[in-house]
């Protein structure tokens, strides 16, 4: 594909290649808990926040390059519905959107008919896993189930483990779990490690995505520590938020988590994924996160098996931006249903 240039330098930035379905990834085997590593972690909030403030200004992509990056963002989405009023019909419509995320006229205008573009996964409650599997049959799109007493994670451990096992048995290939926040807030790293390790074992061959609920952890240092402990315990992804907290995914927390992923890779050789979820509803925000991932982790992470957006409304805004790219006009939200 074509290349564009950064605003402040002459280094070329290649357009990301758009994958149609996630690449299968091996499971993170984890490692023994190294408390010295965890306790020695320190993050400078002001420095991280200064770094985050540059992501939307120091680099930019425009015109057809922006369209290419937005198509990449579509391929990285866990298209999600996690509402109390979810129904089988809503889940089927969501899956139809995952199979064909863009309107046919936009696909034709963008000349991407042969791309076979889909979202990265569909994420639902356990009760709707069979419905989603049926609706996505033959597509290769994974079904992710939220588990372990989502979103608060305060039910008894045996019930949380049983919920994981039930979702895996039902056919979910990705399990999004929530941790006990008090383990992080009190520095009980051994308890957190053994909790996530139990979740890893319950997942079997399914991928484990550990939700940190970063908005409830207080400091970037705690977020970094929770990230490292979760990866040591076998997390295949670490995820920012449930989407139900008052503060969800922010760029500083994304930087803090990405740097721990990099440290874990350097120490173990294993690449863990990052999932940004909650509060990411605009194409502009998606581009900022993609720039973050590219600069902090490298282009190899711009792939569905290493980076995801947890999204419900984001796809609609991306469609609107792509329509503007094609027609020069912004469309109404109702032209992009279930996004």
Overview of the molecule:
The chain is α/β, with parallel strands linked by helices and 339 residues long. The chain has a single domain (30-335), classed as TIM Barrel (Alpha-Beta Barrel), CATH 3.20.20.70. 43% of the residues lie in helices and 12% in strands.
Instruction: State the CATH topology.
Output: TIM Barrel
Just give the CATH class.
Alpha Beta
Domain count: 1
Percent of residues in beta strands? Answer: 5-15%
Round the Cα radius of gyration to an integer and report it: 19 Å
CATH architecture: Alpha-Beta Barrel
Q: Ranges with pLDDT <50 over ≥5 residues?
A: 1-14, 20-24
Query: Order of helices and strands, N to C?
Result: EEHHHEHHEHEHEHHEHEHEHEH
Biggest sheet: strand arrangement? 3-4-5-6-7-8-9-10
Distance between the termini: 27 Å
Fraction of residues in H or I helices: 40-55%
Number of strands: 10
Largest sheet: 8 strands, parallel, barrel
Number of helices: 13
Strand-pairing-aware structural class? alpha/beta
General form? globular
Name the CATH superfamily assignment: Aldolase class I
* Mean of pLDDT: 91
List the helices and strands and how they pair.
Elements: E1 3-5, E2 12-14, H1 35-40, H2 45-53, H3 63-75, E3 77-80, H4 88-99, H5 104-110, E4 121-124, H6 129-135, E5 143-146, H7 157-170, E6 174-178, H8 181-185, H9 189-203, E7 207-211, H10 220-232, E8 237-239, H11 251-268, E9 273-277, H12 283-296, E10 307-311, H13 314-327
Parallel strand pairs: 3-4, 3-10, 4-5, 5-6, 6-7, 7-8, 8-9, 9-10
Antiparallel strand pairs: 1-2
Helix pairs in contact: 2-11, 3-12, 3-13, 7-9, 9-10, 10-11, 11-12
């Amino acid at each position: 594909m074509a290349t564009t240039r950064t605003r402040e330098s002459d280094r070329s930035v290649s357009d990301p290649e758009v994958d149609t379905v996630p690449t299968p990834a091996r499971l993170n085997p984890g490692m023994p808990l190294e408390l010295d590593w965890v306790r020695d972690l320190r993050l400078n909030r002001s420095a991280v926040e200064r770094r985050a403030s540059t992501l939307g200004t120091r680099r930019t992509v425009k015109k057809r390059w922006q369209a290419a990056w937005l198509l990449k963002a579509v391929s990285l989405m866990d298209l999600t519905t996690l509402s109390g009023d979810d129904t089988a019909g809503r889940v089927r419509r969501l899956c139809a959107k995952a199979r064909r995320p863009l309107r046919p006229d936009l696909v034709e205008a963008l000349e991407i008919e042969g791309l076979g573009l889909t979202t990265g996964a569909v994420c639902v409650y356990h009760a709707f896993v069979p419905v989603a599997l049926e609706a996505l049959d033959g597509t290769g799109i994974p079904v992710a189930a939220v588990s372990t007493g989502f979103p608060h994670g305060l039910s008894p451990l045996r019930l949380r483990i049983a919920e994981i096992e039930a979702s895996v048995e039902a056919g979910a290939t990705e399990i999004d779990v929530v941790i006990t926040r008090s383990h992080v807030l009190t520095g009980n790293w051994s308890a957190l490690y053994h909790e996530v390790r139990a979740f890893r074992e319950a997942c079997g061959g399914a991928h484990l995505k550990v939700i940190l609920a970063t908005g409830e952890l207080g400091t970037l240092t705690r977020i970094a520590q929770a990230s490292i402990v979760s990866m040591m315990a076998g997390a295949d992804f670490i995820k920012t938020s449930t989407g139900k907290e008052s503060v969800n995914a922010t760029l500083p927390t994304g930087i803090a988590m990405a740097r721990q992923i990099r440290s874990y890779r350097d120490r173990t050789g294993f690449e863990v994924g990052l999932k940004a979820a909650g509060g990411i509803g605009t194409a502009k925000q998606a581009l900022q996160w993609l720039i973050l991932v590219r600069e902090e982790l490298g282009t190899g992470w711009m792939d569905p098996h290493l980076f995801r957006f947890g999204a419900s409304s984001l796809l609609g805004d991306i469609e609107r931006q792509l329509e503007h790219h094609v027609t020069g006009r912004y469309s109404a939200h109702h032209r992009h249903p279930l996004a």
